[in-house]
Every structure is written in structure tokens, then in C-alpha cells.
Amino acid sequence: MGEGLIADGLTAFARASAEVAGAFCVGDAPTIADCCLVPQLASARRFHVELAGYPQLLAIEARCLPWTPSPLPCPTVSLTL
Predict the structure, then answer these.
(1) CATH 2.60.120.230 for domain 2-67
(2) Cβ neighbours of residue 22 closer than 8 Å, sequence gap 6 or more
(3) Distance CA 69, CA 33 (A)
(4) Measured CA distances, 25 to 33, 48, 55, 67 (Å)
(5) Domain-by-domain residue ranges, the chain?
(6) In the chain, where do the E strands start and end?
(7) Distance from C-alpha of 25 to C-alpha of 37, rounded to nearest angstrom
(8) Would you say 37 and 76 are in contact if contact means Cβ atoms under 8 Å apart?
(9) Cross-strand bridge partners of residue 27
(10) Measuring CA to CA, which residue among 59, 43, 58 is closest to residue 6?
């Protein structure tokens, strides 16, 4: 159920960003769009959405990941206090 909604959202995002993307979602510098993309792709993986059809989004994600401060925002990581 959720898989289809996530895939629809990624398809729309990929179409919209295709016209303005550079190294990142909007041009060659990170924006809030990139901050939103990374957790959306993590969610897509969690729900086993096929991501092969989104090579540009995956490339942008790869450029963003080195800047993430920790794995905490990822829903698959649990905290132990």
C-alpha cells in the first residue's frame, strides 16, 4: 500500500528535479530539497520500493550522505541509551 505512494512521490520528484538538478536536486549546491530526499529514499528502501528507475536521485543521495552527521535520522537505526 505505502510502496505505491512512495514510488509515485519519487517519480513526481524525479520529474520535477530533472529540469533544475545539477550535482544536487536544485543546482550544484545542497538545498532543503536534498535534506528531504535522503529520508524519502531511506523510507523507500524500508518498504522495498524498487529504486533502479531513479538513477539521478540515487546519485544525488550519494553526494549528500557524506554530509549526514550520523545515522540517527535513518528509520532502520535504533537508539540505545
Answers:
(1) no
(2) 28
(3) 17
(4) 6, 23, 12, 15
(5) 2-67
(6) none
(7) 8
(8) no
(9) 21
(10) 43
Q: What is the pLDDT of residues 27-48, one digit of tens each?
A: 999 999 999 999 999 999 999 9
Q: How far apart are CA 58 and CA 54, in angstroms?
A: 6
CB 68 within 8 A of CB 61: no
Asked if 75 and 42 touch (Cβ cutoff 8 Å), the reply is yes
* Cα(1)–Cα(47) distance, integer angstroms: 10
Q: How high does pLDDT run on average in the chain? A: 85
- Per the CB < 8 A criterion, the answer to whether 9 and 49 are in contact is no
String of b and e for 19-58 (b: at least 16 CB within 10 Å)? eebeebbbeeebeebbeebbebbbbbeeeebebeebeebe
